[in-house]
Write a structure and sequence with these properties.
The chain is mainly β. Helix content is about 0%, strand content about 40%. The strands form 20 sheets. It has a 5-stranded antiparallel sheet with strand order 72-73-74-75-79, with no helix packed on it. A 4-stranded antiparallel sheet has the order 2-50-49-48, with no helix packed on it. Strand 35 and strand 36 (about 510) form a beta hairpin. The radius of gyration is 33 Å and the shape is globular. It starts with 6 loop residues before the first helix and ends with a strand. Mean pLDDT is about 90; it is low at about 1-55.
């Protein structure tokens, strides 16, 4: 019986304390009563959910943020756990079944914590699954979080009720989503929204009845989804006949009677819905507002089913099933046999009966569904008693905390799995505490553990959130002590604590979230003081609004992740407020704001790492609060992506460990990239600056042309020899429609900038890089063919500009123009060399007296053209389309190396290819499979010669851009980690626009839509071990 005392908090669907908070200025005692949490707010929701992150799309910034010095970055190293896999998936285990539907000879089971619904035949044979076990995201393009109920309508469509997402999702019989009611992740009290719905039922006319549990009502809609009626008073619980209080499951019989399990009123309300527009109460079972255990009384009824002759009601608080006569509503029988044996059950949540009279009980307390015949004789079990799922050390179920020992042992808090794991550096298991997926309140169990910390002696401190305590173990996993005197608000008590830190001297700091404070204990576990005012939320420097985490730096300063105030509060060792990171009460995705911070750590150099919950990112700040870099902000499942970071830890080498809840993994990152240095702050301080698409060296300085996505227009930045960046253009040269500077070139001591503009590309020039004047406006007068300057280059004393469009069959598609003075221009071609399928020119290269142009042609393959004069009509094609393969859809880059001309291709089918020629006319392949990366490495972004080697930059949207190097064209080495350690850097520039050598330093500009464009410099030249291309 060790688990029974807390099972109700697992079964009743929990939310979390929300609202604003702040901390108290000095460490002192406080005995003020904390806000109490109802059982409804104790279960799920604080870290559940899978909404679209607020970081997607354009970031709205409220003002400039203080920037630190560029150069610090983090690269991806490795992963512990199995991404997007919470545990071992099968159909023989059930992770807390909550709702049921039965019909014909089958039963559907809503597996609440398993995020799926399962269909079985009445003989126990598995038939169908909707959702993925324990994973709430991206099933057929939607998310399924906490499935409270499942039902099948008259057309055979399957309806799932997602309590946490506040939605009903309708699937066709094949399991494909075909409809949605409610707005995902948005609750409300109007008739278009729900708040924690739990059940759905249908009448013979196809009307839809929704138990909108946390709004204390049942909503009725016609078959088209139009609202008809409300039963109960919206958001007003009560015991009078017109009220409902936390309605759970519902049922509609064939005589148009609606049955509502009015759980908190301990009754079943029965309405005549022959006319849904008229509210007619037909009867009540139970005593309104009075729980009871005798026959005919209920204690929290949750499930209901009505067949031809009986009414079946699961009486959760009494752990029994009561049966009534349908016609007379007289009590008939009770099925009650608490326990875990055959035919027993614990806290049943729902009931269903199939056409053969088989009775199914959702025995959530035993993680199973039990089946009985019409005479209440046990038949079989669905699921495995007491075992919600199987797992191992390579699977984490919503990891929330992580810590690293001096010997590199890793401690992971498996929050939804209720486990603490100690792993070797290679990921193998040393020991674990807890029972997978099973909550408990003894020393060997947890109930939603959320954080872990280590002291100097190697003892392990685990925040056991729903048990309102901290459990302490030695390094061998033996329980040593418990900190916390039960749920409460007095000194030493906790209310849903979230975070913990242990100082080198043994002082313990606990983020007591529900009490809006941080409590402090000495090494002997004696309470010594607190930050914050108990039970009082606020926005001042001495208040918190849900302190989620706490950290202590080397100087003894205390950092608090003040979750709902969207800030980090920093205090000295005596509790005096010092400063903050973020703007109080203002969430944001720009670099100066935080969005529900959940975790904070500080490294040996005083850098502060902050995890944003819904930002899906980690931001790093210098000791003074200057922004340094961002991890994630891409909300995906690739290496380097982040979904709901809950825990952070650093090891002695500065490696960062990230407990990533919704991806069910721990990722590891390390500072720096060997041989490379990031030359700018991400996005030059603005994440909306997503692409450093063009680089140029002019008058000894580095220039970067930038794409800007917030509608303000392209930007141009200049870097001095001292490494300082200055913004020269901030508004697209006065025209925000110039969304990016796509190409830069130097000609006759002038710097030229080409733009992308849907109204026609522009070219501007400057003699000093500061003052600019237009050269070309409106795309050479041809809007359709010239929205973008794709490349510029110099040949035989003239400046050439190539244009393009992403459309395929535009009559005036690719153009090339030239100018002898940079002001007056003449056309070379305005129709793609006579082939409108040549949509753009990506590469220009002068070699051996010819100008070469590579085109994009998605139909027949990229083409390579050349001319000795550059004049119109003098051009000849020198390759077979696509080098004989139409999947080579573009010639993307050209360069001379060791007396040969090299050409890179775009091929998303088998991988980018590299070709070479000794005369520009006969071509042989160098590599044809994306350097081993296949289709993922499908685009040669650039070719450049540096220190006698040929470098190839490859585009890769999965793992990030790659740079490969060779000294002989045969042996190759990759000289960057993918994406420079970040998969959000998938590419550099088009046709070598974003690569150059200046003062013997190699630079690349990248596209990073997650956290802003980056510019990288190659600062060392290494001897390398080759990869042989075949």
């Amino acid at each position: 019986m060790k688990k029974l005392s807390i099972l109700l908090s697992v079964m009743l669907i929990a939310g979390w304390l929300v609202g604003p908070v702040v901390g108290q200025g000095t460490l002192e005692a406080s005995t003020d009563a904390a806000q109490a949490l109802t059982p409804e707010t104790q279960e799920i929701g604080e870290d559940g959910g899978f909404p679209t992150p607020s970081g997607s799309g354009v970031v709205v910034a409220s003002g400039p943020v203080a920037l630190g010095e560029p150069g610090f970055n983090l690269r991806y190293l490795s992963t512990y756990g199995s991404p997007e896999s919470a545990y071992l998936e099968d159909t023989t285990h059930l992770n807390y079944p909550y709702g049921l539907w039965a019909g014909g000879s089958e039963v559907w089971i809503a597996e609440s914590a398993g995020s799926r619904a399962l269909r079985y035949a009445s003989d126990g044979t598995f038939q169908q699954q909707i959702g993925r076990a324990g994973y709430p995201a991206s099933y057929e393009g939607i998310s399924l979080e906490w499935i409270a109920d499942v039902s099948v309508d008259g057309s055979g469509d399957i309806w799932l009720v997602d309590k946490l997402a506040h939605t009903l999702i309708r699937f066709n019989p094949a399991g494909q989503p075909v409809g949605l009611m409610g707005e995902a992740w948005v609750s409300g009290t109007d008739n278009d929204h729900f708040r924690g719905p739990e059940s759905v039922a249908f009448d013979a006319a196809g009307n839809v009845y929704v138990s909108d549990t946390n709004n204390h009502r049942v909503q009725v809609f016609d078959p088209a989804g139009n609202w008809l009626q409300t039963y109960g008073i919206t958001n007003q619980p009560g015991t009078a006949a017109e009220y409902l209080n936390t309605p759970r499951h519902i049922s509609v019989d064939d005589t148009n009677l609606l049955y509502i399990a009015d759980s908190a009123n301990h009754r079943v309300q029965i309405y005549d819905v022959t006319d849904p527009l008229t509210i007619t109460l037909a009867a009540t079972l139970g005593i309104s507002g009075a729980a009871g255990s005798d026959n005919g009384h209920f204690s929290t009824p949750t499930g209901i089913f009505v067949d031809d002759s009986r009414i079946y009601i699961t009486d959760l608080g009494n752990s029994r099933l009561q049966v009534f006569d349908r016609a007379t509503r007289i009590y008939l029988a009770t099925l009650q046999n608490p326990g875990s044996g055959e035919g027993q059950f614990l806290y049943p949540t729902d009931v269903a009966v199939d056409a053969a009279g088989h009775i199914y009980l959702a025995d959530q307390g035993n993680s199973r569904v039990t089946q009985y015949d019409a005479g209440f004789q046990y038949m079989r079990t669905y699921g495995v008693t007491g075992v919600p799922y199987l797992t191992d050390a390579q699977h984490f179920n919503r990891p929330a905390g992580v810590a690293v020992a001096s010997d590199q042992s890793l401690y992971v808090v498996d929050s939804y799995g209720n486990r603490l794991l100690k792993l070797n550096p290679d990921g193998s298991l040393v020991w674990s505490v807890g029972e997978a997926g099973v909550p408990g309140n003894d020393a060997a169990h947890f109930n939603r553990p959320v954080d872990v910390a280590l002291d100097a002696a190697g003892w392990v401190y685990v925040v056991d959130r729903n048990n309102h305590r901290v459990q302490i173990f030695d390094s061998s996993g033996m329980h040593q002590a418990t900190l916390g005197a039960g749920m409460g608000s007095t000194a030493g008590q906790f209310q849903f604590p979230r975070g913990i830190a242990v100082r080198d001297d043994g002082t313990i700091y606990v983020a007591d979230t529900g009490n809006q404070r941080v409590q402090v204990f000495d090494p002997s576990l004696n309470w010594t003081g607190q930050l914050g005012l108990t039970g009082t939320r606020g926005t001042g420097d001495d208040r918190f609004d849900e302190p989620f985490d706490v950290e202590v730096d080397g100087a003894g300063n205390i950092l608090v992740a003040d979750h709902s105030n969207h800030r980090i509060q920093i205090f000295d060792a005596q509790g005096n407020f010092l400063r903050r990171i973020g703007e109080t009460g203002v969430a944001g995705q720009d670099f100066g704001h935080l969005d529900d911070p959940t975790a904070v750590v500080v490294d040996a150099n005083g850098r502060v790492y902050v995890a944003d919950n819904w930002g899906g990112r980690i931001q790093v700040f210098d000791p003074a609060g200057g922004y340094l870099t961002t991890l994630g902000n891409s909300w995906g499942n690739l290496s380097g992506d982040l979904r709901q970071v809950q825990g952070l830890a650093l090891d002695a080498e500065g490696r960062l460990y990230v407990a990533e809840s919704l991806n069910h993994r721990v990722q590891v990152f390390a500072p720096g990239v060997d041989g490379w240095s990031q030359a700018n702050i991400n996005g030059f301080g603005d994440p909306n600056n997503v692409w450093a698409a063009s680089l140029a060296a002019f008058q000894g300085k580095l220039y970067a042309g930038v794409y800007q996505v917030s509608g303000l227009g392209a930007q141009l930045w200049q870097r001095s020899s001292a490494g300082d960046w200055q913004q020269l253009i901030s508004d697209g040269f006065g025209n925000p429609a110039n969304n990016g500077i796509s190409s830069l070139a130097v000609f006759q001591n002038w710097l030229y900038a080409g733009t992308e503009n849907p109204n026609g590309a522009e070219i501007w020039h400057s003699a000093d890089g500061i003052s600019w004047a237009p050269v070309i406006l409106g795309g050479f007068g041809s809007l359709a063919g010239a929205p973008r300057i794709t490349a510029m280059g110099v040949f035989d004393g003239q400046l050439y500009a190539a244009t393009g469009s992403w459309e395929l069959l535009n009559p005036s598609i690719m153009q090339i123009w030239r100018s002898a003075d940079g002001v007056n221009w003449e056309s070379v071609t305005t129709n793609g060399f006579g082939d409108i399928r040549n949509s753009m020119a990506l590469a220009l290269q002068a070699w051996n007296g010819f100008l070469y142009v590579g085109t994009r042609n998605d139909i027949t393959g990229g083409e390579l053209w050349r001319s000795a004069s550059g004049e119109a009509g003098s051009w000849e094609q020198v390759n077979l389309n696509g080098f004989g393969n139409s999947k080579n859809t573009a010639v993307t880059s050209l360069v001379e190396y060791q007396g040969r001309l090299y050409a890179g291709s775009r091929n998303w089918t088998s991988g980018a290819e590299l070709w070479r020629s000794v005369d520009g006319a006969e071509w042989t392949p160098v590599t044809q499979n994306g350097f081993g990366g296949g289709a993922n490495s499908g685009w040669v972004d650039s070719l450049v010669v540096y220190h006698g080697s040929l470098l190839v930059a490859l585009r890769n949207y999965q793992s990030g851009a790659q740079v490969w190097q060779t000294a002989d064209s045969e042996a190759w080495e990759q000289i960057t980690p993918d994406g420079w350690g970040d998969n959000n850097n998938p590419l550099t520039g088009d046709g070598s626009t974003a690569v150059l050598v200046l003062n013997d330093v190699l630079y690349y500009g990248t596209q990073n839509a997650a956290s802003g464009a980056e510019v990288w410099s190659y600062v060392t030249y290494r001897i390398f071990l080759p990869y042989l291309c075949r």
